[in-house]
Design brief:
Layout (H helix, E strand, L loop, with lengths): L2 E8 L1 H5 L3 H10 L3 E8 L3 H7 L9 H8 L4 E9 L1 H9 L12 H5 L8 E3 L3 H11 L8
Antiparallel strand pairs: 1-3, 1-4, 2-3
The chain binds adenosine-5'-triphosphate and magnesium ion.
Length: 140
């Protein structure tokens, strides 16, 4: 199977606890390669645009507060079946449901402050990558 790409965010709860390297190691150990990476302070506008699909959910405002509460690391990951591979190593949204050995089981603080984001389809991965990266910032 050919390599595909997915989009990842190391969220503010993880950067605050100096876990950027630890999270990235788990991604790499799962067979994903970091082909683009930058540490940014997300603006309110970026957070609201990125999570637009959740606009009607009760947690939307708080989620945007959280995602702008500190630096995040946005990454493009490449590997075989990258979207699924990444979702598998991330674990369930709620850390209390996440399997042992997953990033969220290891590090997440709560259902909101759950350390990582990962695209949920190839189509959304392409959109999310284009939201944060230009083609020349991705070096495979
Ligand atoms: P992500 O999109 O960040 O990879 P996910 O696909 O596992 O996570 P989604 O349902 O897309 O989960 O929710 C997006 C994010 O919104 C979650 O990662 C979490 O930070 C937050 N979130 C989801 N459900 C809740 C909730 N019930 N209360 C508070 N925050 C929530
Ligand atoms: Mg999601």
């Amino acid at each position: 199977m050919a390599a595909t790409r997915t989009f990842s965010i190391i969220k503010p709860d993880a950067t605050r606890r100096n876990l950027t390297g630890a999270v990235t190691k788990m991604l790499e150990d799962a067979g994903l390669r970091v082909v683009a990476s930058k540490r940014i302070q997300m603006t309110r506008e970026q957070a609201e645009g990125f999570y637009e699909v959740h606009k009607e959910r009760p947690f939307y405002g708080e989620l945007c507060d959280f995602m702008t509460s500190g630096p995040v690391v946005v990454q493009v990951l490449e590997g075989e079946d990258a979207v699924k591979r990444n979702r598998d190593v991330m674990g369930a949204t709620n850390p209390s449901d996440a399997a042992d050995g997953t990033i969220r089981k290891s590090f997440a603080e709560s259902i909101e402050a759950n350390s990582v984001h990962g695209s949920d389809s190839d189509e959304n991965a392409a959109k999310e990558i284009a939201f944060f990266f230009t083609d020349d910032e991705i070096v495979g």
